Structure formats: structure tokens, C-alpha cells
């Protein structure tokens, strides 16, 4: 197996995608824009797994570009498409390994998104996470939930949906994955990031915190009834390199949420070669369904805003004509009413009043 990895210029890792026996292992970190339409109503954020790459994880072997860039813009033109990268190699050849933990990467994701979205901070977000990248996303949402910073808390408020691709949700299977990765590392005498490997062991405190916290988050949202995250879990149907499924379906499925089987191995579940790929068709269907929900909510909110704006404008017209607004027009009993000689100007959608104003409590 070691010879096969070298011969193909590949490793178990998503990130080492090379040709002619030369491995390309330079990590690409931070947010990269794949598509940025002027009329975007939603942000799609792709997050690769441990040992992954922000481009290669989403690129079929025969394609030079990731499928979100090649196939999504023409099919969901109203979505801005982003991919997030981080150096989280469990196995690395001929270089030092990043000592960052999953918590470091989740905080980096949270901060990077907040900064990048400063011009659209209330835009809905849909996360698409591959493999253990789902842990990074979960941990980022937990950090957002408890952050004292409003701009970081806002990320969770904006999340509309999560699409997990081969993400394990239960500890025993994560431990098996960790053992396989460490085993491959020992075969190649590669170095390992012990912080990441430690998370993949049984009874890991970090893993327990993430999983427990995420399930509590879902329960609290369901109990409150104010909002619930849309979640779909995709699981692999084929073994990887004769090793059986890396993430079995029973671990990749969250009970109570839709599940979709994709006829691919753990690596191929995130790589679609064409728009005819059944896996792509399934993923596209979920994204379109969620974006339709976002578009409906956006339209509904605008309609409500238009009604309120007209109502306020009519009340102001009455005040400008020297009529005292009644309680209903002014927001009910106890509201402040304004009447008298008022001239109104509208500048940049703001109301500016000039004249003799008389304030009275109703």
C-alpha cells in the first residue's frame, strides 16, 4: 500500500494531489472566493476535513478546478461560494506539522467568516463540510453561541443549513478513523499532529465536548421553537482502497434528519466529476431546497418591511398635515404622538423633520 501511494502521487490525505510521483502538500489557508455574484442572497461555505485542502478536496481527479466553482454558479446563481482552508495534516511528508488543534481551526473559521462577511453580515449561511471538517464547523458554531462578541455570535444566527459529507457523529467510529490515520503515518514514517490525533481517540474530552455541545444546541433550538437548523447527512456507500467504509452509515447519520447515500468512497463523496453524477444531483437538490427557503424568507421580510414603511409613511403624512395620529397609528397606548406644523424631507431613506413640533404622551 505504501508503494501504491507513492506510485500514484497520492496519499490517503485529500491534500496531497500531485502528478508524476511528486506530491503537492503546501496547505492553502483562509477563505477563497469561488463565485461572487452581485445579487447574492446566501453564502455557501465549503470546509474540508482533517488532512484536506480547500481546492483539492472538492476537485475530481480529471478536473483542474473544484466542482463548486465549475458546476454551481450556473445552477444556483444567487449564491456566493466560498471555500475555507486550514493546515490540519494528521500525516505529513518531509515537513513539520501544524500543532494547531481542532479548536484553533474552528476559531479561525469563525473569525475569518466574520471579517470576510463585514459587507453582508446578516446574509444566511449554508455550510458544506467533508469528513472531520464537520467537527470544525460544529465547534465553530458552539464558539459562536457562547462568544461575548456580537459579530461572532451573529454567525450562528445566520446559519440556515448544514450539509455533512461523510462526517462521523459518534466517538467509537472516530477512534477507528484515528487509528487508521496513525497506522498510515507509521507506514510512511511521517510525523503526526498529536493534538489532532488525540481528538480521534476514545474518550477524548475534546470530542465529547463538541458532540455533546452540538446536540445540546440542536435540542435547545427545537425546544425554543424559534428556529431550527436544516441538516442533511450524506454517507459513503463504497469502501476506500479495500478498507471498508471509513465512516459507516450508522455513524454518518444524525437521527431525526434526512440522510442520503452517495455511491462513492470516503474520498469520492466530496468529488463530483460532472453534473450527471448522482451524488452531485442529490447535493444540488438539497442546496436548491434550502436556497428556495432563504429566498422565500427574504421576500417575506421585504414585504413585511414594505408594509411597515407604508404604515409609518401614512402616519407621518397625517402629522405633516396637522393631524394628530391616534393610538393605533402611533403604535398603541403610551406611545409618543407628534402633531403641529411639520415639514418632512426624505434623505437617504431617513426621516428628517423641520418645523414646530409638539410632543405629547397619549
Automatic annotation (TrEMBL):
GO terms for cellular component: endoplasmic reticulum; membrane; mitochondrion
Highest taxon above the source species: Eukaryota
Places the protein is found: Endoplasmic reticulum; Membrane; Mitochondrion
Domain DUF676: 44-194
Keywords: Endoplasmic reticulum, Membrane, Mitochondrion
InterPro entries: AB_hydrolase_fold, DUF676_lipase-like, SERAC1
First-listed, main subcellular location of the protein, grouped into a coarse class: endoplasmic reticulum
Record's keyword annotation contains Glycoprotein: no
Listed Pfam families: DUF676
Family from the record: Belongs to the putative lipase ROG1 family.
Matching PANTHER family: PROTEIN SERAC1 (PTHR48182)
Listed name of the protein: DUF676 domain-containing protein
Amino acid at each position: 500500500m505504501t508503494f501504491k501511494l507513492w506510485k500514484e502521487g497520492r496519499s490517503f490525505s485529500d491534500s496531497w494531489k500531485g502528478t508524476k510521483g511528486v506530491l503537492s502538500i503546501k496547505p492553502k489557508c483562509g477563505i477563497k472566493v469561488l463565485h461572487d455574484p452581485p445579487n447574492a442572497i446566501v453564502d455557501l461555505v465549503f470546509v474540508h476535513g482533517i488532512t484536506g485542502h480547500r481546492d483539492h478536496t472538492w476537485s475530481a481527479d480529471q478536473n483542474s478546478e473544484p466542482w463548486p466553482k465549475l458546476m454551481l454558479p450556473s445552477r444556483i446563481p444567487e449564491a456566493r461560494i466560498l471555500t475555507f482552508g486550514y493546515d490540519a495534516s494528521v500525516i505529513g511528508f518531509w515537513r513539520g506539522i501544524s500543532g494547531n488543534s481542532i479548536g484553533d481551526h474552528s476559531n479561525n473559521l469563525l473569525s475569518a467568516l466574520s471579517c470576510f462577511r463585514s459587507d453582508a453580515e446578516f446574509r444566511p449561511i449554508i455550510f458544506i463540510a467533508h469528513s472531520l471538517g464537520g467537527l470544525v464547523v460544529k465547534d465553530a458554531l458552539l464558539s459562536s453561541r457562547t462568544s461575548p462578541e456580537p459579530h461572532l455570535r451573529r454567525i450562528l444566527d445566520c446559519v440556515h443549513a448544514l450539509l455533512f459529507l461523510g462526517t462521523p457523529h459518534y466517538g467509537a467510529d472516530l477512534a477507528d478513523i484515528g487509528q487508521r490515520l496513525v497506522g498510515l503515518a507509521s507506514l510512511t514514517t511521517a510525523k503526526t499532529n498529536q493534538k489532532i490525533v488525540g481528538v480521534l481517540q476514545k474518550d477524548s474530552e475534546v470530542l465529547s465536548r463538541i458532540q455533546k455541545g452540538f446536540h445540546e444546541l440542536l435540542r435547545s433550538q427545537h425546544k425554543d421553537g424559534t428556529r431550527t437548523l436544516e441538516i442533511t447527512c450524506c454517507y459513503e456507500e463504497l469502501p476506500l482502497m479495500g478498507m471498508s467504509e471509513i465512516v459507516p452509515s450508522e455513524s454518518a447519520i444524525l437521527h431525526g434528519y434526512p440522510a442520503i447515500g452517495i455511491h462513492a468512497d470516503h474520498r469520492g463523496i466530496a468529488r463530483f466529476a460532472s453534473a450527471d453524477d448522482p451524488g452531485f444531483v442529490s447535493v444540488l437538490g438539497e442546496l436548491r431546497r434550502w436556497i428556495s427557503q432563504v429566498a422565500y424568507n427574504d421576500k417575506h421580510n421585504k414585504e413585511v418591511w414594505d408594509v411597515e414603511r407604508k404604515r409609518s409613511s401614512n402616519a407621518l403624512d397625517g402629522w405633516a398635515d396637522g393631524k394628530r395620529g391616534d393610538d393605533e397609528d402611533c403604535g398603541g397606548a403610551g406611545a409618543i404622538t407628534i402633531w403641529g406644523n411639520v415639514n418632512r424631507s426624505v434623505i437617504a431613506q431617513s426621516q428628517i423633520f423641520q418645523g414646530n413640533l409638539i410632543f405629547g404622551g397619549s
